[in-house]
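Co-fold these.
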Amino acid sequence: MDQQKETVLAFRGLTRRFGGVVALNEFDMELDNGQIVGLIGPNGSGKTTSFNVLTGIYSANGGTIEFLGQDITNWPAQKVYEAGVARTFQRSRLCLELSIFDNVMIGNHKRLNQGILFNIFQRKALKAQIEENYSEAHKLLKIFDPALAEKIFDPVGSLRMIDRRRIEICRALISHPRLLLLDEPSAGMTHEETRELMDDILEVREMIDGLSIILVEHEMGMIERVTDKCIVLNFGQKICEGAYRDVASDKLVQEAYLGGE
Amino acid sequence: MDVGLLGQFVVNGMMLGMMYALVAVGFTLFFGVLDVIKFSHGDVLMVGTFAGFTTYIGMTAIGIDNALLQLVGVLVISIGSMAVMGAIIARYLVLPLKSAPPLNTLLVTLMLGTVLREAIRLFYPDGSNPKHFPALLPTDSWAVGSFTLRADSAILLLAGLLVIIGVNVLINRTRLGLAIRAVAQDEETAKCMGINFKMIVLLTFALGSGVAAFAGVMNGLYYNEINFGMGLLLGVIGFSAAIVGGLGNIYGAILGGFLFAGLQTLGAVALPFSSAYKDVFAFAVVIAIIAWRPTGLIAEKTSERV
Amino acid sequence: MTQSLKDKLVILSLAVLATAFMITFLAIEEQAEIFALLVLAAVLVFASAKFGLIETISGCLSRNERLLNGAVVAATLIVAFWFYEDHFPLLMIATVLLYTVASCGLNMQFGYTGVVNFAGAAFFGIGCYTAAVLGETSVPMLMVIIVGGLVAALVGSILIIPVLRTRGHYAAVVTIAFGLLFRTFLEVNDALGGPQGLGVSGMNIFGWDFNSGITLTDDIEVSFYMNYVILALIMVMLTFVLMRRIERSWIGLNFDAVRLDETAAACYGIDIKHWKILSFTLGNFLAGTAGALYAMMLGFIAPSNFAFSDSLILVSIVLLGGMGSLWGTILAAGLVVLLPEKLQAIQEYRFLIYAVVMILILLFRPQGVLPRGLRAYIPGWRG
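Predicted complex below.
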């Protein structure tokens, strides 16, 4: 990327405890504009916890989170989203009985007019807004899968896993976030599907100016292929940071994965 | 206030607290194993009391009129039949809805409560009128100053206490209790460890319902009157008590039960305007406590996986 | 014949059929005849389901929403005017309409946003008591309906904190406790008439007294209940439009998101508290307005009208019709109110029968009789 280097996100000494368990311990990291960072580590090492603390689902017990120059530590989830952070969930959290369009629009919350009087009385303006957002959602879905875009008014519950993942990512991307958090997008999919999905994400990244991504993933092929740098967590602590190649050959990392010591 | 009257309030409050705690323990047990609310619990209690009452009539009719024998018969039939009914409810109404939204179980059992209540009102002989429940316990009394303690009250309190302790020992000290706690902790792991999940659920429902039937008979013996609607209020109070204490926690249920009875008693004794407001007062405080401690006084440990 | 013409014919003939059915149903008294009519209706419904007719019809209906809405209003008016001089059928129709409004309120809370409320009868009752108290004052009676709704919403706001801070079972017990508290309060409170209840003045708009019959000519005297039927029908129409517009807007989407997954909704900026408060308050408002007019119509109210079992009836209407389904609510309100009134054999057993039916519904058809479909923001629009 030739854009000027700008820190999008910075964790400083981020700590989160659950009772006696330290899920995140003095975690420091920085993410630059347009970067893709892979967050790896064994199960329970604090990857998802860091997402949850960042997005305001859990509060931090210590440390700070800075996003685009603002201190957003312990902001409620809603404000974090408004600021430009969108995420997906490890276990897909879509509304299965709603249509694809509805689900994508949930992600577009901050760009829709939520006024009560507007929604009830200004039906014409609302209609225009619906149509405008429809074409945008349609366009976005089409990048992932043209067939999916044609099924935009079908309930999500009727779709395959890969389609649900795609919709979840569209839901996150529709509001043009500055930071996208992907929590194990490959879970429940084949290698081929994962590769396809990641290509689509990369394609969308070109369209959204300065989108940074943090990717939590077990699928090392994917990490190797798309990330600019990797951070390895173990027992809530950062044990290594660097390019995938360097990280993969690190002794500590291998021990963490093999359970050595 | 005169000591005798105060003593009377205390005994009455303890009696109510004991009954509420017994009902609340059931709610908390069911919630523990299945994360569901069985709202028909209060009405199961009522049906159990009627079963006991019918047993008494039957025994009198065939000439058994020894009060002790009658008491044993009433308790055995009432507790036994409700244990079976609890298991049947679990098997055919609660377990089939296991994967449905938890609210559906609440609704189904709420409706079942109505079915039980209406069935007794409509089909039990003269069911819409209150019945006189016999005094099967000795009614001697001891006077301490201006306060009289009746033997039947003392026996009921003691028996209630023993049942609560018994349930506690069963849950915390026996293999069955261990299995119940294991299922409550983590259903999947419990299954892997070879615990028969379904059987444990049925046994838990049988246990809770049996305890409720005991509370119902206790209620009948204390007030000497039973009616088809008695279970609704007892059920709601037991449910509130379990919630206020913290669902899934036996001590919380006991605490909640006595707390509710304490509030009612306090409302009856201390409210300046009228003691008729005691239930209004008790429910208002319950709502306030829930607003203050949304997961109960002894909070259940929940952490949603995200 | 074009598709649209065919559709219109289908809807019109259905409307005629439904009108004829309702008139017959309300007119006949003989229990065997009523029973036979109900069996006939059930057979017709099952047969059309069997031969796929239901799908054709529902396609037809969804393509012609305006015509459908108009046909239903016209049918209701025709049925009402058919019985212009009979008190009882008109009272029944007005009751169904007001229960529909109250159930819509509950549906907004429960069906749309997933906020449980087992004290529906209490909020309905608050509207009733407001009407009783204000009936003695000089407040215009049409205003009283609005005020009834506002008072219900205001009293409901006491529950907002506990309801917002809790979920599921905990919120359920808050409303159940409130319902019991409300009724006990009315029973022990002498200022509001105690267990004996209160009389309520009738509706009066600019001197037009609702409680006196309308004499058109010497032979034609219209029952005074007709006034209430018309006003209740207007309330249903307004409620219906409000519910529809909310459902088909971003508000409805927010409500659904809150109901289906609070965590995900919060991560996408949806303010859970804001939308829960809106839906809870609007729902209680609707129940209160319905209660206010109901009290004026009956002229008398007592605490026993607002028992826990009455709250359960409202919940039953929502469940039977289908959570969030508007037409379902209307149909279910009709069934739940009319069947026990017409079939005296089941009158005594009605609570038992409702409860059994609800258990069967929850076990075998949890989506209700007329399940809510996917959101169609703009009718007939597919992008």
